[in-house]
Amino acid sequence: MTSAARVPAMTSCRQKDIRTLTIKKRANMKRKINLGIMGPAGSGKGFAARHIAKKYGYKIINMGNIVRALARKEHIKPSRENLEKLQSKFSKKYGKDFVIEHAIELAQASRKPIIIDGIRKPIQAELAKEKLGAKLILVDATPEIRFERMKERRRKSGFSKTLEEFNKMEENEDKVFNLKKTFSMADFKIDNSNGERYLFYQLDRLMAQIR
Fold first, then answer.
1. CATH number for the domain including 189?
2. Running along the chain, 211 residues long, what does each successive block of 10 average in pLDDT?
């Protein structure tokens, strides 16, 4: 009788342990922080986002892809200039936060922690922090290095800008998007001027810090 009476108690303890482990596992999942990646052209922000996604189980939500999808619906060639004009047009029609709001909806529906890739406007940075609790990472490199990367990336499509033209293009983009203010809202900064290996080293140290 005594032995039989102890069995339910042992089962109850085991079930309690399982429940405790499940709660802890859920708590660990909740502790994974959402992220936002931003940076100027050629900084390697997309490359950085892919490294974090692959190694740490994040889902990437690309802001540029949201605008490119709109361009396809409008039958517009998705050049950089056209996408900027389209985003400006839709911002006037639906509000300046329409792209980030769509990204936030996708993020809230995701079971994985997310990285929003391509935050450019102050309102986008503000809402990512406010609604997703996201930590924002600025990836940057020297203008000369970024220019060479863009030249190599777009070599086949006829990228023929000089460094002076590239710098002028960035000045114009800053006027349109207020990039300096956006970048000033970053919680962390990564320097991607020294190659892939050092980039990954910095990202892994950062992830160990914020996870």
1. 3.40.50.300
2. 46 51 46 90 95 97 87 82 78 79 93 95 95 97 94 68 90 91 97 96 95 71
Q: How many CA atoms lie within 13 A of 211 on its CB side?
A: 14
Q: Which amino acid is at 175?
A: K
Q: At what angle do helices 143-153 and 163-177 cross, to 10 degrees?
A: 100
Q: How many domains does the chain have?
A: 1
Strands 188-191 and 135-140: parallel
121 falls within a domain: yes
pTM metric for this prediction: 0.78
The answer to the question of residue 192 being in a domain is yes
Instruction: Measure Cα distances from 172 to 68, 167, 168 in Å.
Output: 21, 9, 6
The answer to whether position 171 is within a domain reads yes
Looking at this protein, which amino acid is placed at residue 87? Q
Structure tokens at 93: 């029609």
